[in-house]
């Protein structure tokens, strides 16, 4: 569900609404509602269970299987109904604070229902394909390299590594023996573009030929000896690989434009004027 706080999050200085993607997998209630339990004569149905599941989301313990999750949600609803019934007995629904909160949550549920509909209407095969094609056309190919490195603390250490490599010793073996970068397997950094690494590293790596060993390169992390294993041009990912990202973008864009349209046509009067800054204190001479 869309969070009200996220609905009103705005990019500073631009007034742009940023909306999280509304869930699209909305379960259609069955024609006949099944009663799962009664609490002092009040029915708890499978529809209630569905709504509770959507509301609680990730707060339901993940280790539960389907049956355990169902039992957890049903117990939650039973306990909630009991506590709510006690609240009615204590007449806690008759105060002004309760009425304000009830109005707030009514608006919140309506907002979520409208934004869910906007999201569902926006996510059509044609719209997803159009958005993907526009992004693919705008993405220019970049040079990408596959490289590995050995990271050491001092220049003399790096020069010794360079000498051993150029004498034919195994790169991965020396990396495991000496490199400070223990996060890479044998120094292998995989494929990357220029902006993915620090400038000193990229400036050296992207001038190397495949198989070539670099001279020691200094960066904020220490001294690197680099070898390039391959080069290629980046390819835009296939649609199926990034369909989720495309869908999220389409939903966010549709919701943002929808709310912006409502704001444009509405008469909004804000009474929370920014506080007047305090007068400057005169210099004491």
TrEMBL record:
Signal peptide location: 1-32
Span of domain PpiC: 142-230
Transmembrane segments: none
InterPro entries recorded: PPIase_dom_sf, PPIase_PpiC, PrsA_foldase, Trigger_fact/SurA_dom_sf
Gene3D superfamilies: 1.10.8.1040, 3.10.50.40
UniProt keyword Isomerase, yes or no: yes
UniProt-recorded Gene Ontology molecular function terms: peptidyl-prolyl cis-trans isomerase activity
EC numbers, comma separated: 5.2.1.8
Top-level class of the enzyme under EC nomenclature: isomerase
The reaction(s) this protein catalyses: [protein]-peptidylproline (omega=180) = [protein]-peptidylproline (omega=0)
Keywords: Isomerase, Rotamase, Signal
Pfam family, any one: Rotamase
Superkingdom of the source species: Bacteria
Keyword GTP-binding appears in the UniProt entry: no
Assigned protein family: Belongs to the PpiC/parvulin rotamase family.
Name of the featured protein: Parvulin-like PPIase
Organism field: Methylovirgula ligni
């Amino acid at each position: 569900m869309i969070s009200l706080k996220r609905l009103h999050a705005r990019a500073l200085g631009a007034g742009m609404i940023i909306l999280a993607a509304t869930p699209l997998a909305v379960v259609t209630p069955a024609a006949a509602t099944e009663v799962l339990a009664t609490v002092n004569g009040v029915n708890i149905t499978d529809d209630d269970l569905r709504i509770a599941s959507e509301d609680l989301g990730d707060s339901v313990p993940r280790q539960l299987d389907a049956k355990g999750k169902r039992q957890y949600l049903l117990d939650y609803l039973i306990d909630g109904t009991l506590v709510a019934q006690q609240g009615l007995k204590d007449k806690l629904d008759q105060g002004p604070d309760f009425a304000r909160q009830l109005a707030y949550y009514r608006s919140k549920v309506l907002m979520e229902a409208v934004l869910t509909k906007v999201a569902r209407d926006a996510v059509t095969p044609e719209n997803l394909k159009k958005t993907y094609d526009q992004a693919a056309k705008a993405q220019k190919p970049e040079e990408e390299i596959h490289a590995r490195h050995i990271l050491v603390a001092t220049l003399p250490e790096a020069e010794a590594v360079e000498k051993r490599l150029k004498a034919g010793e195994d790169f991965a073996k020396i990396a495991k023996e000496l490199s400070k970068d223990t996060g890479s397997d044998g120094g292998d950094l995989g494929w990357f573009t220029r902006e993915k690494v620090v400038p000193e590293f990229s400036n050296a790596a992207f001038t190397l030929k495949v198989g070539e060993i670099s001279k020691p390169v200094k960066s904020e992390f220490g001294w690197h000896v680099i070898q390039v294993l391959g080069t290629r041009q980046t390819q835009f990912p296939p649609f199926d690989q990034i369909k989720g990202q495309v869908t999220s973008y389409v939903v966010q864009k549709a919701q943002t434009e929808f709310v912006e349209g409502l704001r444009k046509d509405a008469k909004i009067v804000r009474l929370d004027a920014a506080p007047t800054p305090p007068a400057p204190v005169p210099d004491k001479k």
